[in-house]
Amino acid sequence: MHLKTYKEDQLARWGLLKQVQREEIIDDSIAQVPHPNDSEKKEIISRWLLQNQIKTNEDLDAWQSDRLLTNSQWEELVIRKWLWSKWCELHFQSKLQSYYLQRKPYLDKVTYSMLRVKEKSLATELFLRIKEGESLFEDIAANYSEGPERTSKGRLGPVPMSQPHPALSRLLQISEAGQLWSPKQLENWWIVVRLEEIINTELNDEIRLTLSLELGDSYLQEILKSNV
Questions:
Q1: pLDDT for the residue numbered 124
Q2: Distance between CA 222 and CA 24 in Å, rounded?
């Protein structure tokens, strides 16, 4: 099928202009990044197939067909994503350590126990029963909690620190393992929380790539804003 060359006002009417401009900035950025050699290219494609759960040639044919891509266009797409990730890693290398420290509290994972009820008096009673050792947190949560955590006996995680409500996340960040907090109001609930474990996230290759791409996305947004 022959595709037209679309004008800027058409793309704007369709709500696609910003996305096209974003891709143009990426193209300009990666123009100077060396392309992978044959061995690297094979590894990049294999990793992409694994990440996208493409297990057979039929799966790949269906993926390409659904997006109207030829095999060569698909390869270009995969390599282009790799080039952008490489550009981000190189371009933001000097900022990565400080950005990692800034983001680390939300990259870490947390396991905690929580129960929630509507009445403060009930929350206080349940808290005291747990604190004094009269009942186990798990039993109290299973019998009294009014949230979905009831089915897991109050235990949640490990989940990214950014997943809980921001106020709860801040509370967990300043907690010590095993620390039980007295009832806290969270929106329409009264909650009792105990930190079980915080799993620290190290700056490994996977996290380095994730953070580099986050910085790359911020970079694109800044340029697009300045072009308005």
A1: 98
A2: 14
Residue closest to 204 by CA, chosen among 49, 96, 47:
96
Q: Reduce the DSSP state of residue 183 to 3 states and report it.
A: strand
Element counts in the chain: helices (H) and strands (E): 10, 4
Write out pLDDT tens, residues 97-107: 999 999 998 89
What are the domain boundaries of the chain? 10-100+205-226, 109-199
Per-residue confidence band for 3, with pLDDT thresholds at 50, 70 and 90? low
Nearest-angstrom CA–CA distance, 44 and 47 = 5
The CATH number of domain 109-199, selected from 3.40.50.2020, 3.30.470.20, 3.40.1370.10, 3.10.50.40: 3.10.50.40
pTM of the model: 0.75
